[in-house]
Amino acid sequence: MNHRRRNNVHWHSVDYDELSEEYDQVRSGSPEMIRHLVRGASLRPGSLVLDIGCGTANNTVLFAEVVDAIVVGVDLSGQMLAKAHGKAPGLDFIQSSVESLSFPGDTFDFVFMTDVIHHIADLYSTLSEVHRVLNRGGLICIVTQSRKQIEERMTSKFFPSTVAVDMARYAGISEIEKVMVSIGYTNVCSREHTLAPFRLTPDYLAIVEKKGYSSLHKINEEEFQKGLQAVRAALSRGDELRFLTKYTFVWATKTAS
Ligand SMILES: C[S@@+](CC[C@H](N)C(=O)[O-])C[C@H]1O[C@@H](n2cnc3c(N)ncnc32)[C@H](O)[C@@H]1O
User: Fold this and answer.
1) Which residues pair with 112 in a beta bridge?
2) With CB atoms 3.0 to 4.6 Å apart as the test, which of 138, 157, 198, 224 could cross-link to 243 if both were Cys?
3) Does the residue 181 lie in any domain?
């Protein structure tokens, strides 16, 4: 299959070693997201789980807290993993690119990736590598956002150029599904979940002030400052903004036979 390596103008990944401090100060995990993952994964005691692109382990920790399974995190960035270690000294974290994992084949029962796929250069290599390390009958779930879900974010209102940035960075849902099918995954299916509404709060201001969303590093400084002023003004007016937060969960199985 012809698969694309991303080489467009917006794609070049951000350097999470440089951003780890700010990221860890303002970003948190999502218990709702984890609830959907745990429900879909149907793990047994002792199952092996891999969180790819685990970052500072915000979601790894939430996941490990609610399952009776062995959870391992992998990330490219040593600085993100330093934060992860500090947060969860009992979990194993390994510095590696998802495109070449050091695990033997047929190892994990469940692999998940939350908010990572738009940083990945080569979708086919990545999903092939996950397929290799999954056990037969094992599951993968990619948590990402569709084009429409990107447009509906509060950040798209205040920082409109982030929409074009993320349209270019995020693989479309049907593209992810097609690549999965071409690799040999079965039961490929996508489900949209609506998480708690996202509101305009001082926490949101803190995230954007620290550029806690990578898309904010990819717009010009003038637009960034304009958006920031608009967020501050809306907060001080007491504007009650409420945006639905929707994610798409793309599930697939490594066939058992
Ligand atoms: C937006 S953060 C998401 C972190 C975490 N999954 C979460 O939900 O909080 C994206 C993470 O993907 C990691 N990443 C990017 N490219 C990667 C690659 N090729 N292999 C492994 N991790 C990668 C980055 O270092 C960063 O920590």
Assistant:
1) 51, 141
2) 198
3) yes
